[in-house]
Amino acid sequence: MPEGKIMKALSGFYYVKVNDQTYQCRGRGVFRKNKVTPLVGDTVEFQADNEREGYILDVKSRKNELVRPPISNVDQAIIAFSAVEPDFNAVLLDRFLVLIEYKQIHPVIVMTKMDLANDKVKQAMEIIAQDYRQIGYDWIFTSTEDNVGLDQLTPYLKEKISVVAGQSGVGKSSLLNAINPELELKTNDISTHLGRGKHTTRHVELIPIADGFVADTPGFSSLDFDEIELEDLPFCFPEMAEIGEGCKFRGCLHLNEPKCAVKQAVETGEIPKYRYDHYMSFSQEIKDRKPRY
């Protein structure tokens, strides 16, 4: 049976690509019975006599999947934040990072609109960037003028499936349009609510860009920690996962336990205090979550 990748899902049809050929397929009834929904990004086995009438027979195992947007096998998330208009929000950045780490997706942080920031903001951004680079995160600065910094982002997209997420109104679509002007993605109207842009996309599709693919979809429309358990959280902060191996108690949650290596690292400044504050606040949020039955 031929194998291909689902590039687009629309109105019950799945568009499966093999080399340069695309086949319009439907899912077999067996998927509904087994409660498997084929997703954009899936590698599938299919059968097709022509380009218009194919059937998906099997979905290969996934390395990850997202619910919103419904997509699988994502390699990385480009997280876009701006230095100004809207102002940078570190809590929101850490929310995105926790959700992305939990799904085992590689994050790349892109800070836009650096040319619009004053010297004081630029200095603060450089310090914060240093903190995140120390943890091991990739951090790229870009400017709206002449698209400075885009050449640094382009190599990250090569041969990868990327989702684009981040603060509303930071220029996510503009960023992709600048890399590939043929995209002509609609830029979202900036909504006054944080992280709530007016989504202009209704279906999920993988769009070729810079020798890779990017999902043209509202990324991470939900930012709550519904799936994450309290004991998962330390592993979503890579520096805490590493330093936490030195804690006295196994399974230390770095909250009230004695001889906690993480709390010690916060005191010595090895872990930025604001990262630990966000960790504590997210822990509380998970504890306060209403139980699901």
TrEMBL record:
CDD domains: S1_YloQ_GTPase, YjeQ_EngC. It is found in: Cytoplasm. Signal peptide: none annotated. Residues 72-221 form the EngC GTPase domain. Zn(2+) binds at residues 247, 252, 254, 260. Keywords: Cytoplasm, GTP-binding, Hydrolase, Metal-binding, Nucleotide-binding, Ribosome biogenesis, RNA-binding, rRNA-binding, Zinc. Binds 1 zinc ion per subunit. Its cofactor is Zn(2+). Its main location: cytoplasm. Its EC number is 3.6.1.-. GTP binds at residues 112-115, 166-174. It is an enzyme of class 3 (hydrolase). It comes from the Bacteria. Residues 63-223 form the CP-type G domain. InterPro entries: G_CP_dom, NA-bd_OB-fold, P-loop_NTPase, Ribosome_biogen_GTPase_RsgA, RsgA_GTPase_dom, RsgA_N. One of several proteins that assist in the late maturation steps of the functional core of the 30S ribosomal subunit. Helps release RbfA from mature subunits. May play a role in the assembly of ribosomal proteins into the subunit. Circularly permuted GTPase that catalyzes slow GTP hydrolysis, GTPase activity is stimulated by the 30S ribosomal subunit. Belongs to the TRAFAC class YlqF/YawG GTPase family. RsgA subfamily. Monomer. Associates with 30S ribosomal subunit, binds 16S rRNA. HAMAP family: GTPase_RsgA. This is Small ribosomal subunit biogenesis GTPase RsgA. It comes from Bacillus carboniphilus.
